[in-house]
């Protein structure tokens, strides 16, 4: 079964505006963030969503509700919104809420890397998570293995939905670093991964539920 997943990055929050790491912690949507959600809703108003998923954070839930409001007003049946912790952003542990550049310098500095992109360039994507967990004095930040185990659990929840059928469109509210991580793992060289996907942007994944996770995802469009 192939599902068409429409992943929307939640609307801008105050932490986004302040350039702070925001993983499992919460921050309210700004006025621009509410507009981001409405803009995404307008883009997606023509789709019949068979299901809808988001993390159990208010920024994702509010974004999802506004998109589904617009979709329902356009004449589509409203699916039940499933909020689950498996859809959360990466957990940054001790670094939650800290300035992004300072946090990534703390993680990469001991290894000779000065930024997130510098860590990726020199050591690969997995190192961004493993270095941050290493730098976390409480080691609460997710390692790469811990992160992907949880993310795979989110896709397993979707695949296990007995009401979904081949070709269905599914709404999923996602997060910036998760979208970037999916892009790096499953995207081709033609994707521009130099910046995080914009708040309110739409990324479309074709998800083949019959395949192992490493082979299950094709990126149809990114950061649109």
TrEMBL record:
Q: Which GO terms describe its cellular component?
A: cytosol
Residues at the site labelled Transition state stabilizer: 175
Matching PROSITE patterns: PG_MUTASE
Question: For substrate, which residues are the binding ones?
Answer: 9-16, 59, 89-92, 176-177
InterPro entries attached here? His_Pase_superF_clade-1 (IPR013078), His_PPase_superfam (IPR029033), PG/BPGM_mutase_AS (IPR001345), Phosphoglycerate_Mutase (IPR051695)
Q: Name one GO biological process term.
A: regulation of pentose-phosphate shunt
**Pfam families, from UniProt?**
His_Phos_1 (PF00300)
Example of a GO MF term: fructose-2,6-bisphosphate 2-phosphatase activity
Name the catalytic site residues: 10 (tele-phosphohistidine intermediate), 89 (proton donor/acceptor)
Gene3D superfamilies to which the protein is assigned, alphabetical: Phosphoglycerate mutase-like (3.40.50.1240)
Could you list this entry's UniProt keywords, alphabetically sorted: Hydrolase
* Hydrolase found in the keyword field: yes
PANTHER family according to UniProt: FRUCTOSE-2,6-BISPHOSPHATASE TIGAR
Q: What is this protein called?
A: Fructose-2,6-bisphosphatase
Q: Which organism is it from?
A: Bifidobacterium scardovii
What is the taxonomic lineage of the source species? Bacteria, Bacillati, Actinomycetota, Actinomycetes, Bifidobacteriales
């Amino acid at each position: 079964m192939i599902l068409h997943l429409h992943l929307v990055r939640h609307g801008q929050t105050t932490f986004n505006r302040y350039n702070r790491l925001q993983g499992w912690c919460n921050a309210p949507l700004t006025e621009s963030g509410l507009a981001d959600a409405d803009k995404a809703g307008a883009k997606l108003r023509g789709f019949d969503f068979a299901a809808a998923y988001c993390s159990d954070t208010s920024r994702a839930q509010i974004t999802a509700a506004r998109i589904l409001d617009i979709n329902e007003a356009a004449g589509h049946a409203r699916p039940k919104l499933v909020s689950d912790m498996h859809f959360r952003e990466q957990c940054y542990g001790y670094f939650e809420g800290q300035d992004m550049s300072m946090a990534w310098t703390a993680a990469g500095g001991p290894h000779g890397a000065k930024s997130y992109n510098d860590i990726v360039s020199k050591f690969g994507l997995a190192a961004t998570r493993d270095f941050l967990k290493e730098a976390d004095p409480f080691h609460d930040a997710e390692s790469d293995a811990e992160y992907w185990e949880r993310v795979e659990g989110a896709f397993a929840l979707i695949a296990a939905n007995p009401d979904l059928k081949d070709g269905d469109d599914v709404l999923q509210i996602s997060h910036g670093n998760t979208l970037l991580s999916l892009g790096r793992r499953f995207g081709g060289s033609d994707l521009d991964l130099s910046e995080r996907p914009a708040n309110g942007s739409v990324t479309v994944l074709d998800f083949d539920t019959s395949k192992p996770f490493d082979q299950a995802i094709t990126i149809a469009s990114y950061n649109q």
